[in-house]
Amino acid sequence: MDGAQLTQQIINGLTLGSLYGLIAIGYTMVYGILRLINFAHGDVLMVGCYIAWFAAVQFGLPWWVALMGSMVLTALLGVIIDQGAYRPLRRAPRISALITAIGVSFLLENLGLVIFGGRPKAFARPEVFNQIYEWGGVRVLSLSIWVPILTAVILAGLLLIIYRTRVGMAMRALSRDMVTVQLMGVDTNRIVAITFALGSALAAAGGVFWAMKYPQINPLMGILPGLKAFVAAVLGGIGNVVGAMIGGLLLGMAEILLVAWLPELAGYRDALAFVLLIGILIFKPTGIIGQELPE
Q1: What is the 3-class SS of 155-184, one letter each residue?
Q2: Is the residue at 291 inside a domain?
Q3: Counted domains in the chain
Q4: Which of 50, 203, 34, 154 is nearest to 112 (CA)?
Q5: Which residue in 153, 149, 141 sits closest to 12, CA to CA?
Q6: pTM above 0.90, yes or no
Q7: What is the CATH number of the domain that holds 173?
Q8: 179 — pLDDT class (breaks 50, 70, 90)
Q9: What angle do CA 252, 256, 262 make, to 5 degrees?
């Protein structure tokens, strides 16, 4: 592989890793507070894609309006899921919440099949993301450049909320000791709902960019990206927002470079994520920069 090819594959890896990271942040935020793996997160991504598709295709709205509308409505969906499915189980054994998360996942998938149909729908890529740039033998789709940039902007905004606002302070406190925070008069249900809203909005953003990269959507599209984003969250250190992004970037880079260097193993690309998951759980369960979280 020459320098131009390596550069092109690194750009592709950064793009894919940015998508994994955006989706993984939702997993890690919810787990950091509730110690819950929200397995419906990938299906929330799917709903966000369909909202953007209807806004752009059926109503002819600009792509950025469709994206913002998708993030807002998907954030609302995240709050509804939390209040309707998870809030009644706050004091229940964790296995009950986990089973509920799987049930919500199946519910969203099957509702998607009933409402939208099982046939994939084409997701048009906006012209601004459809240009080809060439330099030094490298041909890069403009989407591959914009996704990491927009991801960095979104991550910066999220970190600003977490570390510079009262809500963010409450989130960080809840992740350490929910009982004590409740005794101090903090409305924990409100903070958890905000956490679900933020995570779901990021899933929608990641889903829309995913649909632009692989331009078709279907009701089961969130399963594999959701599982890989979970692997990315564990790899970086579940419960750590920056760790989730680092894990996503590493996973995306590993997938792309595996196919580039060993094309005969391309069929095992998806399996690589789960091999990494097993390895990280065996050798470093807290992830790359994760810490032991209190029970």
Answers
A1: HHHHHHHHHHCHHHHHHHHHHHCHHHHHHC
A2: no
A3: 1
A4: 50
A5: 141
A6: yes
A7: 1.10.3470
A8: confident
A9: 140
